[in-house]
Specification:
Elements lengths: L5 H6 L2 H47 L12 H8 L3 H7 L12 H7 L4 H15 L27
């Protein structure tokens, strides 16, 4: 009980004193609940933010999967982190809007072999991607070296 003098306490009856104590306890419990609830909501927001960032990075990361006939230009562009217009221009398509047809359909309509279309797309990807971000050649596996584990030759 805050700001109550001793004479005021002596003047209160037992029932009033108990009532004031219970009211004070309820108020403190409500403050504690609000504090815990606020902390819980803040923790949920932080978890939600990092989850959103992780999912968006995972969905937009380059996958470098080999190009196949069922893929369309926007899918390949997203998988290799290349603008769709670069791929459309490589196939002689208008670059202003992405063509969502599978590349095997595009190859048939252009009377080209699917392997040739895939080679054209791979060449366009290679030219549009900086050397340090180029995908590995199809059918190869890559190993990541730990920079701290590499040994430098001693003189």
């Amino acid at each position: 009980m805050t700001n109550v003098t001793r004479t005021e306490l002596e003047a209160l009856s037992k029932e009033e004193l108990i009532d004031r104590l219970l009211t004070e306890q309820r108020r403190r419990r409500q403050q504690q609940r609000r504090l815990v609830l606020t902390g819980f909501v803040l923790a949920l927001l932080v978890v939600g933010l990092f989850s959103f960032r992780a999912v968006t990075r995972w969905r937009t990361r380059p996958t470098y999967e080999p190009i196949q006939g069922w893929m369309n230009i926007p899918h390949i562009a997203r998988a290799y982190d290349v603008p769709p217009r670069v791929l459309a221009e490589a196939l002689g398509l208008p670059p202003d809007h992405p063509d969502r047809r599978p590349i095997e359909v595009i190859a048939k309509e252009q009377d080209r072999d699917l392997d040739l279309v895939i080679a054209l797309l791979n060449d366009a990807i290679r030219k549009a991607t900086p050397p340090d971000r180029r995908p590995p050649p199809a059918g190869t596996t890559t190993t990541v070296l730990n920079p701290s584990s590499t040994q430098t030759p001693t003189p």
